[in-house]
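Let's do one together. I've listed all components of the complex below, 308 residues spread over two lines.
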Amino acid sequence: MFGQNSTGGAINYIARKPTNEFSAGAVASYGTFNDFIEDAYVSGPIRNGVRVRLALRDENSGAWQYSYTRNDTNGRTHQLAGRLLVDWDASSTLKFQLNVNGWQDKSDPLALQYLAFNQQAISNAPEVKHILVRR
Amino acid sequence: MTSRAADWSPDNGMFIHRNLNQTVLRADWEFVPDITLTSITSYVGFNERGALDQDGIALSDLDLRYFYGDIHSFAQEVRFANANTGRFRSTIGANFSSDTVFYDENIVYANSSATQNYGIHTSENYSNQHMTNIAGFASGEYDILSSLTAKAGVRYTESRRSATICNHDGAMA
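Okay, and this is what the predicted structure of the assembly comes out as:
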């Protein structure tokens, strides 16, 4: 465990470095709940001493949760992530590494499932006993 | 009930928009033979907003009508290290970081006993935190024999924290 502001320790995540030779690749997958994942990268030298790698990832899925009292769904995934790495060997004694990355997540939050009525909660909803449960 | 069955208030938006961006620049400069100066500069920005039902029922017992927050995190490290070819290897450096973290959430519970007994149906809380860390460190190792190495390291960190945290009446729904 290390890092001043890390709550549960830290994960040392090392991204693949830009390569000396051109390379590119893509992976696509499809799964349950219309879960599409696309992953692609391109890597290589763009001029003498400068190597770059660009990677993109996209995931979109349909809803997997449903309401047990009405006709409604939840749990869609909409995620997009990208990373640009630039390695520049300015001279034999001076080297730069730049990493610009970002992601956005516009997924549905996880919906909860009612388990039991807690009489001793600080505040609770007495009408919960009358909810009709659709199975 | 299957694990896919869940419930949430129909008037809760149930959405999350989160994004993070990060820029890191590292420079290594061997300014005299066998001694390298390394600089690592990093900035991370994060923000989120959303709405979330927290009670697992269609009634409003404990729902986040909205929440939003952001994080700005800056760090700079500078260190010197000698090449690891000789018997003695060492690193000396300093680190500075500054972080601000803000979060606000509005909680509604119109169908709960708190509303029925006390007439309170919403509340809100926020926190605004600042963290600054300044550190200096040094470490060295020496090969006494080919199979015996002595290592020592020292680090001093000064951390400053401040926070404004408030739990208050919620805006009228």
